[in-house]
Design a protein that fits this description.
Length: 181
């Protein structure tokens, strides 16, 4: 519905421009064609907002406890692979760290793909994270037709679940902290 409403709003703006007497279109059209343009979109024939949230009710944000359970499951997968002495524990650890990084910094998928270790920055609000309190996003969401935007994003100790906060206190090494900024 929101896409249709956006198209409708664009059309309304075009019609509003064409019918506005300040620009002279109505008089010019009347002289040349014998008719003046009229606004075709009105309240009674357009899509309206029926509720504040139009998304599916089952697509809600995760609760704090659900996020913690997700992180625990990702960490549990690493431990399970290590306990079986199988290959893949490093890949599982990487996946768990990327999951926590994406959550803690609110990154988009493409932004996470473009991260490198040199993108980690200090955040004075959470000094205990050392140089892992902020991330410089080099490949952010682009404007229509433009290049990717660069931005810095930071986290705070209050927003991170306990599993994130605990893993960054162990050491200043990148492997200990990149998963939980």
């Amino acid at each position: 519905m929101s896409t249709a409403r956006n198209y409708q709003n664009d059309l309304w703006l075009v019609f509003d421009y064409i019918t506005d007497t300040r620009y002279g279109w109505p008089s010019t059209c009347n002289e040349r064609f014998g008719r003046a343009p009229v606004q075709l979109l009105h309240e009674w024939n357009t899509i309206t907002h029926t509720s504040e949230y139009e998304g599916a009710a089952e697509l809600r944000p995760l609760t704090y406890d659900e996020v913690q359970a997700l992180f625990d499951a990702a960490d549990g997968r690493v431990e399970e692979i290590r306990a079986r002495r199988r290959k893949g524990s490093l890949a599982a650890l990487r996946d768990a760290m990327v999951l926590k990084t994406v959550y803690a910094f609110g990154l988009r998928r493409q932004e996470a793909c473009g991260l490198d270790l040199c993108d980690l920055r200090r955040n004075p609000k959470v000094a205990e994270y050392g140089r892992f309190g902020a991330i410089f996003v080099r490949y952010g969401k682009a404007s229509k037709g433009g290049p990717p935007k660069r931005r810095s994003t930071s986290t705070s100790a209050r927003s991170a679940p306990p599993s994130c906060r605990a893993s960054t206190r162990h050491s200043g090494s990148p492997s200990a902290a990149t998963g939980c900024p």
